[in-house]
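FORM 7B - TANDEM STRUCTURE REPORT

SECTION 1: FIRST PROTEIN
SEQUENCE AND TOKENS:
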Amino acid sequence: MSIPLNPLVGFLRKLIRVRSPSGQEEEVVALITREMRALGFDEVRIDENGSAIGLIYGARPGPTLLLDAHCDTVGIAPGVAWQHPPFEAEVVGDVVYGRGASDMKGALAAMIYAAAHVDRSRLAGRVAVSATVMEEVMEGVSLASVMEEIQPDYVVIGEATDLGLNIGGRGRSEIRLEAPGKPAHSSNPHLGDNAVLKMIPAIQAIEQLVFPEDPLLGPGLMVLTDIISEPYPGKSVIPSLCRVTYDRRLLPGEHEVGVLEALRAIPELSGIKVSIVRGRYETYTGAVLDALKFFPAWKLEPTHPLVQKALKGLRAAGLDPTLGAYRFCTNAAYSAGRAGVPTIGFGPGTEARAHVVDEYITLTELQTASRGYLYMIHEICR
């Protein structure tokens, strides 16, 4: 079984040329659904959030396998020069450059072409491919509506694994600390209560925390990402509020209540409000994604039937995958972390290529990934 390279690369280049930052994916979703229909998908639809879904039906009853790749990308940092323009999809030798090439339009193209080339006579059940929106701002939230509609038995996330097989992933949460103060003229600081000074011991205490470590996923983390005081800018006034945001990387078994209680128990945080940030984003369809920014970690055992079937399929495709885990957060935070649906990760590219200048994917790994998806589909849906 093989997948022609030229049409696959041509489709990827079209995807890269369409700008699709989070909340502005309408044009790329239209391109994706057109390609799915042209490739003969049995059913193509767009859900309420604007995610594209394509379905291939097998010859007999069987499981539903969902292959998921998000179609939104991060933006381009102003004033940072690219050697290869981010939206021209330039091909140099074995490499395609452009925003989203590795994260993750390459995997999306490979999934779509793999599903389109399955042998329906051998396929049991059905295969769905989703191009989900808004993943870069809210991991797994738009995938939830896709899964409610499709009801998959298994999920494959296409985030970069360097063609290895990932069986787990760290989660993340956005934690906010707020220290209250009392304003006063800065010439009379004793009449006020400086919120920033109240926050400093809390920050220092958090820096001393030691988090558990998972043999597969690595350590839990808590990293300060921003700090701001009010009023801002401060002009001859003692700050009346200090707000700090942390990125908390999660391990399996960590939940909202436990994470918050552990922080609130720190003596230096007494009197400081600790909460999980609530995200609220509007999709291009006008639907609103509203959820706490707490995206759980997940892990499958190497002996799980899905893992074993995926390994068998990938080896039949000529790969020799190692088992690993995502150190960053993916849509699997919902599929596995919240919904409990067996999930694995497999994709071209590496974690280090995401969100960088001159992002790229090689044609070799693109074709290899598509072949890997094809053989996994046949092994899982048999």
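SECTION 2: SECOND PROTEIN
SEQUENCE AND TOKENS:
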Amino acid sequence: MYKYRSRIINILKKVFLLVVDKKLPPLTAPEIDLINEYKKKFKLLSSQVSLDRPDITDGWEENIKKLINHIENDDMRSFLRWEIIQKTMFDSFSPYLKFELNYLKQSRDWLETWDKAIEENISGYPIPFYLYQRSSGNLIHHAYHIAQFKQITDINIDKLQLILEFGGGYGSMCRLFNKLNFKGSYIIYDLEYFSLLQEYYLKSIIINNYHTKWEINNYYCISNFIKLKNKLDTLRPNQNQNTLFIATWSLSESPIEIRKLFESILQQFKFILIAYQSNYNGIDNNEYFNTIVKNMDNYEWINYKIEHIPNSYYLFGKLD
């Protein structure tokens, strides 16, 4: 049944793209330099870093191998259309995206905020969302998370000074916060291969002038825990800063050993935005995050089911 549904979706994608798709513009000299730079970086990383590690589960080991194969053989400008990216971090056609777009359109912030924030650019060659072709399904999905969080916590994004995202996909959430007038420092912590992909994507936005106000030194893609702690110490000179920790399904897909490392990190942030599935690889995530809530009782917590996504929940925290 799942394979049949996937085939139908793939056929619909192809028909839709035949009708609405735009060709990539000619390569520019800066783009060629950027692609060559990161193909070399990925090749060097592949020769130096083992995938046989406790922080890489079996499923993600296979995903990384497929990603490496694409980078070696395909056009990086269209990486958002690669099958492995579509499968793991770029949602194009899921039925729930219609619900999330409608939620954004019906909010009082639509014209002032979301309509502009979810406008896509050509970097990565994203598939347009069929109901709103100025955007993509993935960007709408990320905007929905932030809109939900804003509604619950009344957070003021342009007053935030530091954001740490655990597992940042290809860097889309970082890009979105920039479009929402976030001016602080943004750290993405991820596996080495995805850190490189995030660097490539964010730099491709900059060189194509899609974010002319973006300070290139304002974001950090980090894959080493010690380096992360050192960077946090540098960027957090006091405890009274407005800070936000984000993990949308990533923390709940990590081995327990990695989660333990980040439990102390969580307590350094004023706001916490987590999305998780109820079970993953035999781990009861409901029980795990309930324990987090109990141990961090100096926070005000809101935990609720995401009704339009099966077996998924939001956990929002705000330091009292």
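SECTION 3: OBSERVATIONS ON SECOND PROTEIN
Residues 144-319 form a domain with the Rossmann fold fold (CATH 3.40.50.150).
The two ends are 47 Å apart (CA to CA).

SECTION 4: SIGNATURE
Preparer initials: ____
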